[in-house]
């Protein structure tokens, strides 16, 4: 296996409307699509040509069966524990004029247990969801995933700057000490270091062999063995950036796991993120490859 992700498989419900009428009805567009940070990263790793697998927990329901099927059809091996008591995780994303609001129900994701994971997670790269590490529910499973990872590259993602602040920066660094890769966006990097841009990447690079700071429309920074690499964002018309960071993570790990040079891995990761932001969707089309 080239890339194994551990953590979150979700069903995303997207609502697009000019404005909501609180307590009333409006016309809009409602769509349902597979998602979840770990599933997203695994699918994009597969798109990049890697053999990918995801460990997670879903409910014994239609959503869980749908997600398992979709992962298979996108070239990812889904090793999903079935929870008889909790529903599959669901994310509601509401797009109004100039605003995006999100409601997350982690459902079965929050109940992932160490027993749901193998004793040894052998892979070129292992990515552990920050949503596991940064919340008490699932934290034990996240720590088990890090401890059991038998991989050249062991990565964590910072997930959410408010969660980082609530969890505690030093506690996060201590719990993530087995990892040699950290993924963070600019706000998460600031929460972890108090610094911006290059200074944040360098500060994180002092703790991790690789630190990737994703800057959205401004591209990305990569501290790799003390070297600071930069990549501009591809010029696209942004439609929806949801999932772009996950695509970046999955493709970067796929490239590193298969021996690509860091500059090439960074460029391809930025390309994948741009495809998502430009409206390709949180997942690529079935059968699509880079």
Care to describe what's here?
The protein is globular. By secondary structure, it is an alpha/beta fold. The strands form three sheets. It has a nine-stranded mixed β-sheet, sandwiched between helices. A four-stranded mixed β-sheet has the order 3-2-6-7. It has a two-stranded parallel sheet with strand order 8-10. Helix 2 links the parallel strand 4 and strand 5. The protein contains ten helices and 15 strands. About 50% of the residues are buried.
Span between termini: 19 Å
Q: SSE order, as H and E?
A: EEEHEHEEEEEHHEEHHEHHEEEHH
Oligomer: single chain
Low-confidence blocks of residues: none
Number of strands: 15
Beta-strand share of residues: 25-35%
Can you give the helix content as a percent range? 25-40%
Rg over alpha carbons = 18 Å
Protein structure class? alpha/beta
Strands side by side in the biggest sheet: 5-4-1-9-11-12-13-14-15
Overall, the morphology is globular
Total of DSSP H or I helical runs spanning 4+ residues: 10
Largest pleated sheet: 9 strands, mixed
Average of pLDDT: 92
